[in-house]
Structures are given as C-alpha cells and as structure tokens.
Write a structure and sequence with these properties.
208 residues, alpha/beta, 5-stranded parallel sheet, 3-stranded parallel sheet, 29% helix
Length: 208
C-alpha cells in the first residue's frame, strides 16, 4: 500500500504539478503565445472528430455544456491526438455558476488553465478562455493567464446582468491586459480593448 501511494504521488497526472503556477491558489499558467488569427474559423469541441481533414485549419472553442468536455481534464492523453489536429485551441470554459461553492469555482478555473498548459507542453497553440462569476471570483478567475495574451470570452447568458458582466470584463482588462479578445456573441458597445467578434458553426444548429 505504501509503495502504491508513493507511485501515485510520482504520477504527474495525479499530482497535476508539472506547470508553472500563479496566484495564491497556485493555478497553472497558460503562457502568452503568438496566435495567427488570419482567416480563421471556429468549431465547437462537440463537433471535433478523429481524422478531421476538413476542419484542421479551424480553431476549437468550448462555449457549450460543461459535460461535453469533462473527459479532457480527466483523460488528457486520450483526447490529445484528436485536438492536436486543429490550428488553435481555446481552453475548456468550465462554468462559474453563483450557486457553486467557491472551492468548485476555483477548481473549474484551475482545470481550464491546467488543460491549456498541458496542451502548450505538447507544442499546441492555445488561447485561454476567461470567464468570471460574482465579484468574489475575481480573487482567482483571472489567474493563470499571462499578461498580454490573446483571450477568448463568451457572451452567453450575460445579457440578463450587464452590470455584473461589465464589472468582470473591466477587471479582466486591468489584470490581464489582453492583446486581443475573441468574443463569441455580440459585444456591448461599452466593452473596451481590441475585440474580434467570432462565431462558430455547430451541426446541431444546421452548421456546415
């Protein structure tokens, strides 16, 4: 039993301590990369597949239900070959619902960044997806993203509470100072920064 325990502690997929850490909670750091966004289209992770010759020049986004990508963190090696086909990967955007306990919200941010750091360690181009919840999440939700990075955000669900969204958005600008903000959905006119509006096709919605 002791030998088994020591062996597990030496397994990086158990300890998850391979990558540079940031912030009080030691969240893995997704490093800034030069990302070529020229003529890029996006698909959702739900629409990726093995041997996808048609969409290999696309980027992949995760603005979909969380359960559709739980396996990426749980079994990162199993999904690596599939995701590595694509031009750029946005990190999985795990939800920060207000009714989640804070420890779960911290965990969701850490999973987001760990997956991004793991992909970068395999030579892939990665864009951190950034999201936030109530103001208490500001203590950790922007950690793990290097200043000046290209980031991705989604506008899904934010229309019902514009004030809270803008509070978090402006906090992101101050803390990350992103080079470019890929925005899925129509941005509010009050949103500053270098915003690039993106869309993605999804076969469930009659996509390509």
């Amino acid at each position: 039993m002791i030998k088994s325990s020591k062996k597990m502690r030496g397994n990086p997929l158990f300890t998850r301590n391979l990558f540079q850490k940031s912030g009080y909670y030691e969240i893995p750091l997704v490093k800034k990369q030069e990302i070529d966004l020229t003529n890029i289209q996006f698909i959702t992770y739900a629409d990726t597949k093995h041997n996808d010759t048609k969409n290999k020049n696309c980027g992949v986004v995760f603005f979909i239900d969380d359960w559709r990508f739980y396996g990426i963190f749980d079994n990162p090696e199993r999904t690596l070959k599939k995701v590595s086909q694509y031009r750029v990967l946005c990190t999985p955007e795990y939800s920060l619902y207000a009714d989640l306990p804070v420890w779960r919200q911290i965990e969701h941010v850490a999973k987001n960044r760990w997956v991004g750091a793991y992909w970068q360690s395999k030579g892939l181009k990665v864009i951190p997806s950034v999201n936030w919840g109530l103001s208490q999440t500001f203590d950790f939700c922007f950690d793990g993203v290097e200043k000046g990075s290209v980031v991705a955000i989604g506008m899904i669900g934010c229309k019902s509470d514009k004030i809270s969204f803008m509070r978090g958005y402006n906090e992101m600008l101050n803390r990350i100072e992103p080079k470019t903000i890929l925005c899925y959905g129509t941005p509010f006119k009050e949103m500053g920064g270098n915003i690039v509006k993106i869309d993605y096709w999804h076969k469930r919605n009659g996509g390509k």
